[in-house]
Amino acid sequence: MLKKASLLLLALTSVFFSNAQEAYKNQSSLKIENFMQGDNFVGHLPENISWSDDSEKIFFKWNPDSSIIDDQYYYDLNSKKTIKLEPENYNNIPSRGVWNASHTKKVYGKNGDLYLYDAKSKQVLQITNTIEGENNPIFSDDENHIIFRNGNNLYSWNIQNGTLLQFTDIKSGNKPPEDKSNGDEEFLLNEEEALFNTVKQSKARKKASEERSELSNPKRPETIYIGNKSVSSLEISPNQRFIAYTLYNRASSKSTKMMEFVNESGFAKEFDARPKVGGPQSTLETYIYDRDRDTTYTFDVKQIPGIYDKPEFLKEYHTGEEEYKDKYEDPRDVIFVNLMFNKKNDAVVIIRSQDNKDRWIMKVNPETGEFSLLHREHNDKWVGGPGISSWNFSTGNIGFTDNPDILYYQSEETGYSHLYTVNIQTGEKKQLTTGNWEVLDANLSNDKKLFYITANKQSPFDQHFYSMPVTGGKLTQITTGEGNFEVNLSPDEKWLAVRYSFSNKPWDIFIMPNKPGKEMERITESTTDEFESYNWRAPEIITFKAEDGTEVPARIYKPAENTKNNAAIIFVHGAGYLQNVHHWWSAYFREYMFHNFLADNGYTVLDIDFRASAGYGEEWRTAVYRHMGGKDLSDQVDGAKYLVSEHGIDKDKIGIYGGSYGGFITLMALFNASETFAAGAGIRSVTDWAHYNHGYTSNRLNTPQLDPEAYRKSSPIYFAENLEDPLLILHGLQDDNVQPQDVIRLSQRLIELGKYNWETMYYPVEPHGFKEAASWTDEYTRIYNLFQKHLLGIE
């Protein structure tokens, strides 16, 4: 009996291992369980680059030995050696800070304390060592003081003698009520003074003492009470007369709830996640404190041009016989994002509308709070783009040049984000860059005579580093070749530390002189031997014609002719506003490796930068306004048609998959384009946009209260009855971004509709971006098997 049981156990074990080894059919040298190890398979790539203040060392985070956590390294330009930094020396890593005008001293904050670096002596002076912490240090206009923030208040430290001055006294809570006597008490007080000489003399002595104390006491700042708000920012004018403070008022929005099922305690734990779109919104309010007059005032928003304008979409919801009015009776809600001063004590404030349609740059008279418009960035869809941002709490790329009257900013006025200047005295504007390309970043040189610019001027598929005179003119390209050049300029501006990658070459650090066309010298080699043992594809970038005539870019991964199976898979990237068709190492590097694996197994893979993707200008960026699942979905359908007509793909053998936004599009594809796609896998998918966050969703669809039709035609859950082909849903239960409730609600909808051709897989410990290799492996094995079964008939 025992022998039989042993034989049975052996047989069962053999079956188990046999099944495990054949979890999927594969003719590639790549294995899902290997490349889904992520960084441990590819190599841990360097990041977080910074320079030493003397421009002789490059610091970066790296993990070439695949340790449990990353380490800190530095490259010495003199010895040309890369050295691992011991943890006890991590505090020596330079922090970002502010240099004085002559670039001889730098002030910075680290671990809540302030430090002053002297470039000549290369010595660092620790200024503070406190528990509460100091931050945001700058030099005063005369460079004799360091101005910084501690808690809610602004202070000044004298570099020469160490004296400390407090500029503000901003306190949480409400102002204490003043002692006021009622009428009865007032009568008694007057009578006592009239009847008794001692009372009269005592009152006189008290008054004289208070007046003398007032004369002898040092002047203190007015106490400003801010209730339950918090101080977001503090800015002081160079003459130190005006202080602008911005208050953050957190909205009392209802938060969603989530559960943690696997943890150390063994008990399921509930936690708050985020509010949903359409609820009350947090605000920023800016005030000016005039130290000379000891007064505080805010701004009259009625002065803002266009403040009463209604968004265009509201006209569609107008009913009744009365003529539609395109103006509100009350001003729109706005956010005062930031206020900045120039060297002449002029002020500029950046204001955003809560409905996402406007950004104003306004000149402010700091004595009166009166506005004058410098630039209005208006978009009937939503304001955004590189250097502008679609996040309402972002200042964007704005600042003063070497001429304090000239303010630079970025705008999509021409359809692409470009660099502009405006004279804040005359209002005269000047466009500095132009063309069908985007300025992705722009920063001033130390002397403020040049802009250093990152742009995709050469091609939307490459990003290069340029310089340009601050007044405009020739744009000089410094880096060359294909790929992405992430540049970190040395403090002396003589060297570039470049984090560079190509389509099939992951990120590594290089160094080159700050001169056009110079060769780069490699500092790090991060990829593993296992990664290097495979000949990774550099996918070809193609374009195909969409139904409206637009040329849509895509990456294509082709199989060898002898393995081609005439089936294809379309990958849909996430975020919507993200670029994945380019010549650099993809943020979706696991998917990139999976696509090589699929091509080895005979599939043709198409990876599309559909409408809504980043890198192609304003019209592309906003093409999904009020209808996500419109042009972004039709681009996938047209991509499938391209595969059939140009690459001989069987129209009945096309699958689709993606995560987050890509999961959303996958659902819309199976629900609304079932004639095109035979199967799909939706990862961390949005199923109902009314349940997503406010910042992202309200840009694209307004709010569900004001624009319900936009939400209904953009949300997969309203089209679930159209499901005909196999659908695999995969979701992490710790995803506090696209929350599990999304797919649970869709699951219930599919159950009630009587649909049976779908499956759901939940991952108990995974957030929005998976972390565990076992989860990645399980997820992509299921996706691969889905396509094998339903596109090729392989069980």
Residue fraction in strands: 25-35%
Computed over alpha carbons, the radius of gyration is: 31 Å
Instruction: Name the strands of the widest sheet in spatial order.
Output: 37-38-40-39-41-42-43-44
CATH topology of the largest domain: Rossmann fold
Helix content: 10-25%
First-residue to last-residue Cα separation: 36 Å
CATH H-level superfamily title of the largest domain: Alpha/Beta hydrolase fold, catalytic domain
Counted beta strands: 44
Number of domains: 5
The average pLDDT score comes to 94
Give a short account of the largest sheet: 8 strands, mixed
Name of the CATH class of the largest domain: Alpha Beta
- The CATH architecture assignment of the largest domain turns out to be 3-Layer(aba) Sandwich
**Number of helical segments?**
14
> Which structural category fits the helices and strands?
alpha+beta
Gross morphology is: globular
User: Uncertain segments of ≥5 residues (pLDDT<50)?
Assistant: 1-21
Summarize the structure.
This protein is α+β, with helices and mostly antiparallel strands. The chain contains 14 helices and 44 strands. Mean pLDDT is 94; it is low at 1-21.
